[in-house]
Specification:
The chain has about 280 residues and is an alpha/beta fold. It has two domains: about 80 residues; about 180 residues, Vaccinia Virus protein VP39 (Rossmann fold, 3-Layer(aba) Sandwich), CATH 3.40.50.150. The chain is about 45% helix and about 15% strand. It is built from eight helices and seven strands, in the order ααααβαβααββαβββ. Strands 3-2-1-4-5-7-6 form a seven-stranded mixed beta sheet. The chain is globular, with a radius of gyration of 19 Å. Belongs to the nicotianamine synthase (NAS)-like family.
């Protein structure tokens, strides 16, 4: 009964924060929105036995709306700091001004380690990597390219021209990344033959905001990517499902699950999937 009451309290708190966020005419970065969003994240990081899938329909509808709101809050946060960084002489020297910089450092280290376990039995790094949903501040791409995959070429895909217009100048002044990082403005479901060029494809959590959209993107990747290439999918687990879409293993048709990793801090869940040469494997943490 105590656990049930804790879950009721948690859902009530999430609903209250949603109601406050939904009243804003715009979700552009400001202290009030930032504080509400941080409160929501802290609430959703509490350990809970809640079964998100079993919540009633009205809460599921609210959750779907909240995920979209959270996506917009995160986008506007990136826009705000991308503009600040873009005004500086050497933007990449000042990435630590971004509030979630330390979390991105941890996340990219985890993702690199997971990728390194499964990419190849050789010491050769991926030659080309696609990052789908890179946004106005492509921190993960920049950090992976700067610290972990120093010989890899990165192709960042975003459907929003303004996002790429802000992101591209951030690496333009860097002698190394300006030669290894490219930006493409297109819907990834319209990309076909080019997908075969990539050894690794990253798909961020907010590409495909509901199950149908997510499945469409994943099936598109599975159809056109090279045999044996790896897809890194960001998902959500437990109460984080109020913040990000959930990628259930059953939607990964055409892909063999290599790893499922659930972080126990502010990170998102990560799923790595490959197609073709690898036997199905499942590791849970």
């Amino acid at each position: 009964m105590e656990l049930q009451q804790e879950n009721i309290t948690l859902v009530k708190k999430v609903c209250e924060i949603y109601e406050k966020l939904s009243k804003f005419e715009t979700l552009k970065h400001c202290n009030e929105i930032d504080n509400l969003y941080n409160e929501l994240v802290d609430t959703c990081l509490l350990h809970s036995s809640i079964n998100i899938a079993a919540l009633p329909e009205n809460i599921q509808e609210l959750r779907s709306k909240l995920i979209r709101l959270c996506g917009e809050v995160e986008t506007q946060l990136e826009v705000h700091f991308s503009m600040i960084l873009g005004s500086l002489k050497n933007p990449l020297h000042h990435l630590n001004i971004f509030p979630n910089h330390s979390n991105h450092l941890k996340l990219t280290r985890v993702e690199y380690n997971l990728l390194n376990q499964h990419y190849s039995t050789t010491t050769q790094a991926p030659k080309q990597l696609a990052f789908v949903g890179s946004g106005p501040l492509p921190l993960t791409s920049i950090l992976l390219a700067s610290y972990h995959l120093k010989e890899t070429t990165f192709h960042n895909y975003d459907i929003d021209l303004s996002a790429n217009s802000m992101a591209s100048p951030l690496v333009a002044s860097d002698d190394d990344l300006s030669k290894r990082m490219f930006f493409h403005t297109t819907d990834i479901v319209d990309v076909t033959d080019e997908l075969k060029d990539y050894d690794v494809i990253f798909l961020v959590a907010l590409v495909g905001m509901d199950v149908d959209e997510k499945v469409k993107v994943i099936q598109r990747l599975a159809k056109f990517m090279a045999p044996g290439a790896i897809v890194m999918l960001r998902s959500a687990h437990g109460t984080r499902a109020f913040l990000y879409p959930v990628v259930d293993p059953y939607v990964l048709q055409g892909l063999d699950i290599l790893t499922i990793f659930h972080p126990d801090d502010h990170g998102r869940s990560i799923e790595g999937a490959g197609r073709g040469v690898r036997p199905p494997e499942l590791f849970a943490q």
